[in-house]
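User: Assemble these into one structure.

Assistant: Restating your components, then the assembled model:
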Amino acid sequence: MSGPAVLQVLRSGALALPSVELLPSVGLAVPRPPVLRMPVTAVPAAVLRMDVEIPRPTVRRFRFERTEQPLAAAPAPRVAPRPPRPQASDRPARRARLVPPKDVVKPEEKFFYLLQPDLETILQADRLEFPRQPFPFQLDGMAFLVPRHGAVLADEMGLGKSMQAISSIRLLVRTGQARRVLVVCPKGLVSNWTRELADWAPELVVAVIEGDPQRRRWQWTLPDVPVKVANYEVVVRDRDLVAELGLTFDLVVLDEAQRIKNRAGQTSKAVRAIQRNRSWALTGTPVENSADDLVGLFEFVAPGHLNERLPPRALGAAVADHVLRRTKEKVLTDMPPRLNRDERIELTAEQRETYRRAEEEGVLRLADMGREATIRHVFELVLRLKQICNFDTATGESAKLDCLEAELEEVQASGRKALVFSQWVETLGRLEERLARFGALQYHGGMSTQARDETIRRFRHDPRHSVLLLSYGAGAVGLNLQFSQYVFLFDRWWNPAIEDQAINRAHRIGAAGTVTVTRFLSVDTIEERIDEVLRKKRDLSDAILSEAGTPAASGLTVDELFALFKLAPPTRAAA
Amino acid sequence: MEQSTTDGALFGFLTAVDAPGHGLFGGYLVVDARGRPVEFLCTAPLKVTRAQQILYGATLHGHLHGQQVGSTLLAECESQPLVVLTDFDPLLTVRSHTSLPVAAVKRRDEAGDVGFVVGSVRVIATAEAESVVRERLAELAAAVDLCEPFERIRLAIEEAQRMTPPARAA
């Protein structure tokens, strides 16, 4: 019997297990099994080399020019005490930061704005004091304006658009980004602007462009005057002169910028012709009648950015980065409330009779005219009827005035002040006679600027004057009358936005208490019908234009005016 | 390098942001005594592999933040600040790569009793540098909340992220 099988190592390095005869005596050989060869030579291990070196990152570097202007020549500002600096673990809850506009593409420019300190720090570090501590939303407004070359500040009236613009101008001048600034405003607001500039930017030298042509030529070219103020009429008149002098402004600010909504108008053309680097528009009503108003405004702010073919929502999205709109409701949660009440007035019997006759005759006349009837004819009838709602043309009776007198008794007794608005200067005159015992004063466009300023001064400071009678045209914009607690709309304007502006003379920042707004509305008259149309339109516009946060307010179209008397408009009649 | 003078004192603010999907961004802002930006540097995003994390072990942060990010930013900067502040502790390791005094800044309610108080923040410097840092920061702290510039750097880094495609590991 052979020995046990031995595992052999072959030359090849393989292992071999030889086969064995298990039954030799029988002679039957069991077939040799195949040899199982297993390689056992150690294979050299593969080396995995890892680069553990962490490379130095590449670095981008930006340097920023320092161009701050010295404040040495600035007069000492009249300063209200500032709140104390944050102490201990106080953390600023929120900071107003300059946010670069979306159309800034250069990294250098983006980083320049992103890396500026927050506005509170800038103001503190530059010792730019204010007569009153700005509200946080006003700092946000400045942070919006400063980096923008084209901007519309469309805050609701009374939120301090001019203060935000002035403070932003101040920052631009301080940092050397603006050396020549032009403010254009309605004529009646020039003195308001110079006063506000003196309050909010006392170190800035300001010149008003006014007077005869020779004087204006000299004023336009005055050197070392960083801020010039001109009214719209002057800008239109001096359009060629400004071009001839080759004037270029670092910034042009338009106040009550809705004035340029008509692109074909002389005012729009004149302001758009001014050479400028930055264009800011201030308006509480960027959309007064239609989306076209906004397109007109943008022809100044960012020419070519909009066109009238854009649908309203696309328009809203396109302007979103250029328009900042806040309402008092949103930002001034602690502002005194505004109480609105519609005083529905029953005409006196004689007034009613006069009204009925005038309407019947007027409608008959329009019907007789047929296709010849024009918008002017309808408009004249509306005005006539509205005037009768104020005063009976035959007897001089006025149910509204009777009611107003009673209300004013209470106003005077409580030592408060009231504003009364009408669209007619003639109405203001009649009211002044009847309201003499309340020390009523008039304020309208027929008065000189000096006379109007003097009126405001007397109304503000003299307790004998409880009532100020204002025309919508002159009194609805720019005035700060927040010491008045009552506003009466003796008759209604065509456009609720103008009414809002009027109301906001009193209901604005600094209002001492609740502002009560009384809108007189003669029952069953043209006033009620107009009110209904405007209310519906306003609701609709609000819904459409919510995309850009722009306000909505509309006047009456030709169709709507004819519809007041159930008449078809001329074009439809012609068709 | 621009030399700082008493009138033109400059201050450095150094921080880093680890952005998911991008990697580590370093940012270094030099401001004047009123907090206005004078110079800004930021790194391209740096992404560390898992192997590098394992192999560097405890030394990773010092190497990554102190040398690769912090030291690189300080070396590339043309301005010469009086002091460098950081709100990100790993960056304090940059001290071994610079002769400038480097101090940590924390909100008072986050820092316990260490260091010294300047305005609403607590500054933590080395014992040798503390008196110098305290003296040099006095002017800036009067105008600027010393934690605020870091917010600016982070905003700028966010913007840089938007301009940079996601990084691959180093």
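The longest helix of chain A spans residues 349-369.
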